[in-house]
Structure formats: C-alpha cells, structure tokens
C-alpha cells in the first residue's frame, strides 16, 4: 500500500513524464504535420485609423494537431525555434501567403499587403533574401505586397547582420516592419540603426490602464518619434473603442486588434473585406439611403 508521500511523488513524476511526453509527441508529429496540412493560416486585418478601411492583414499560423487539438503559436513556435523546424514552417507560411496573394490578383480582387512573421532564427538564415525573392517571382507578385515582420529582440543578437539583411530586403522592394516594438532593451538604439518602414507597437503600450499616465505619455511620444523618423505606426492589441479613439487622437496610422477583428480563416477574411468595404462605401455615399 502506498503512503500519501508516494502518491505525491507519483503525481509529480507523472506530471513530469506527461510534459516530457507531450513535447516528444509534438516533436514526433512535426514531421508529418506539414505533409498532412495540419497548419492553417489565419488573417487578422489591419485598419487605417483615418478612414477605417482595411489597409492590410497579418498572417498568423495555427496548428490543428490530430491528438492535442488546436495549438496556439505561442506554445509551439519557441519549441520549433529550438529544434530548427521553424525554418520549414515559416517558408510554408510565406509560400501559402504568396499563393493566396496570387489568387487574389488573378481574380481581380483589390490587393492589400499581407504581413508575415520571420522568426528570430530565420532572420539570420543567409538564404532568406533568396527564398523570399524566389517566392515573389514564382507567384508573380510585387515585393511590396509582402510585408516582413522582424522582432526587436532578434536585432540585438547580431545587429550588423540584421542591418545588412534589412538593407537588401528594402532594395528588393519589401516593406520591413518591426514587430513588438518597445519590448527589448535597445529600442531607441535600434531605431537609429535599422532602416525599417513600419513600427508595430507592442500591445502592452496600448492595453495599459487609463490610470497609468506615464504609459500613455510614452505611447504618445513613440508615435511622434516615429513620425519624425518617417515611419508608419501600427498599434497591436486594440481591444476597445476607447483605445482606438486614443490612438487616433495621437495620430497613429493603423490599428490591429480584437476590437476591430480577430484573426480568421481565409474564406472568412475575404468575406469580411467585401462586407467591410461595402459598408464604408454605403456610409460615404448618401444616395444609397435616399430611396
Ligand atoms: P505577433 O506577431 O506579435 O502577433 C500578434 C498576436 O496578438 C497574435 O497572436 C494575435 O492573435 C494576437 N492579437 C491580435 N489582436 C489582439 C488583441 O486585441 N488582444 C490580444 N490579447 N491579442 C491579440 P497569435 O496568433 O497567438 O500569435 C502569437 C505569436 O506567434 C505572434 O505574435 C508571432 O510572434 C508568432 N507567430 C504567429 N504566426 C507565426 C508564423 O507564421 N511564423 C513565426 N515565426 N511566428 C509566428
Ligand atoms: Mg507579428
Ligand atoms: Mg506583435
Ligand atoms: Mg508577439
């Protein structure tokens, strides 16, 4: 008969075994995941705050795991970065997005740029520019339709290499966005060194409570600074009308967040764009109401 300590011991070692097991389950299933199309790309629209039109979208990957169900990228991206599988996954995401853009172009749909995430690992891949140019050639796209999101924390690992990669990507016509801006240790230094086009403000700045006056002042200051540097600003994680109004009053260019729309599968995203744009046209065209 086991005493209670044994039970506790069994409980903890069981927990430990479970977490090791689940990491192993994930590692084992990575190889088949791409082959079996278990990854799905969701699109989250980005809104122009001056007129509320959809000005772009971000591609965000989801994993429909056959055993574990829906897994969020925050749970598997770090693991993929550790074992190198992130490179295959990112390339898969970029290619799917390029194919999607090509499809919209073919169907005469109004084109909006799509932002893709580039892992801190892949930004150091010497093949990166070759892979990206290969994709836009293959799908007959202008580079400007593909926005490249890199993270501030990746920059600090080897600034010189990132600067030269970004310069090369810029020359090729890609638009470079700095994701999660304000979370690293050298944000201002990075701004003075790295020739990016767009700042994406980390949601921490936006979601701070009204009471936190300092945060609000810092937010307003960063937006002004971005203007001085000729950068566009996107606010991430906008969840309330109040936040959207505040950002608009601070002259922020774009907003992305649950208040406007959550990330959604591509069919839903296409419908969302059509519906949203027709609503905006209705509002602007009074003749539509006059019968
Ligand atoms: P991120 O690139 O900063 O993406 C923004 C995250 O914020 C997304 O989480 C999005 O769903 C979430 N979000 C958007 N609006 C709101 C809001 O109003 N409130 C809150 N609380 N959250 C909001 P998601 O999709 O879970 O992705 C998490 C992170 O995983 C991303 O952060 C990105 O770093 C990474 N990721 C996602 N897809 C990819 C990919 O294809 N490749 C790579 N390398 N990383 C990816
Ligand atoms: Mg991003
Ligand atoms: Mg972000
Ligand atoms: Mg993030």
Automatic annotation (TrEMBL):
Source taxon at top rank: Bacteria
Domain named EAL is located at 23-277
Q: Give the function comment from the record.
A: May play the central regulatory role in sporulation. It may be an element of the effector pathway responsible for the activation of sporulation genes in response to nutritional stress. Spo0A may act in concert with spo0H (a sigma factor) to control the expression of some genes that are critical to the sporulation process.
What's the protein here called?
Stage 0 sporulation protein A homolog
State the organism named in the record. Gehongia tenuis
């Amino acid at each position: 008969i086991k005493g209670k300590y044994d039970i506790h011991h069994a409980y903890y070692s069981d927990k430990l075994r479970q977490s090791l097991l689940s990491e192993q389950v994930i590692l084992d299933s990575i190889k088949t995941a791409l082959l079996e199309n278990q990854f799905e790309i969701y699109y989250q629209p980005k809104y122009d705050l001056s007129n509320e039109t959809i000005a772009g979208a971000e591609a965000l990957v989801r994993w429909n795991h056959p055993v574990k169900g829906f897994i969020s990228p925050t749970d598997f991206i770090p693991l993929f970065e550790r074992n190198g599988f992130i490179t295959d996954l990112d390339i898969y995401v970029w290619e799917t997005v390029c194919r999607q853009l090509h499809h919209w172009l073919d169907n005469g749909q109004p084109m909006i740029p799509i932002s893709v995430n580039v892992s801190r690992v892949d930004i150091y891949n010497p093949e990166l520019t070759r892979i990206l140019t290969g994709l836009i050639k293959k799908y007959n796209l202008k580079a400007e339709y593909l926005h490249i999101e890199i993270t501030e924390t990746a920059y600090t690992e080897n600034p010189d290499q990132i600067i030269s990669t970004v310069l090369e990507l810029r020359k090729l016509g890609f638009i470079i966005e700095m994701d999660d801006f304000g979370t690293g240790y050298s944000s201002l230094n990075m701004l003075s060194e790295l020739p990016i086009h767009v700042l994406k403000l980390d949601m921490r700045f936006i979601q701070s409570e009204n009471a936190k006056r300092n945060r609000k002042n810092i937010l307003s200051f960063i937006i002004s600074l971005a203007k001085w540097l000729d950068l566009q600003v996107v606010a991430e994680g906008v969840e309330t009308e109040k936040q959207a109004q505040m950002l608009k009053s601070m002259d922020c260019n774009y907003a992305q967040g649950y208040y406007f729309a959550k990330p959604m599968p591509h069919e839903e995203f296409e419908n969302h764009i059509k519906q949203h744009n027709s609503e905006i046209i209705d509002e602007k065209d009074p003749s539509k109401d006059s019968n």
